[in-house]
Write a structure and sequence with these properties.
Elements: H1 3-24, E1 28-29, H2 30-39, H3 47-59, E2 63-70, E3 73-81, H4 83-108
Antiparallel strand pairs: 1-3, 2-3
Helix pairs in contact: 1-3, 1-4, 2-3
């Protein structure tokens, strides 16, 4: 397994929280989320993976979805955090901080 392949596997487990964080900054749609991830250096994350996570978040009621006509083509789904999505985002960062603290302690040994 290459370094990047290993990172991709790790990232899949974190992607839900990262996507919630992106959506928390304002209403957005899947292609824009994918581009945001790519601009942040996550080039191995496909649009299909992002849409799979968005569908899961929608089923969990972490995001609300509104379909609207796009200026540049077909209808788009726009995503916004719900109250439970905001709570899930906060929980993600709390868990992330706990994990990072524990890793730093182990690394410091």
């Amino acid at each position: 397994m290459t370094f990047l392949a290993g990172m991709t596997e790790m990232l899949k487990g974190l992607l839900e929280g990262i996507i919630l964080q992106i959506i928390s900054k304002g209403e957005t749609y899947g292609y824009e989320i994918t581009n945001h991830l790519k601009e942040a250096g996550f080039n191995d994350i496909s649009e299909g993976t992002v849409y799979t996570v968005l569908l899961r978040l929608e089923k969990q009621k972490s995001v609300s979805v509104e379909k609207r006509k796009s200026d540049k083509g077909p209808m788009r789904k726009f995503y916004r955090l719900t109250n439970s999505g905001e709570q899930a985002r906060q929980d993600f960062w709390t868990r992330w901080q706990f994990i990072m603290t524990q890793i730093q302690q182990i690394k410091g040994e």
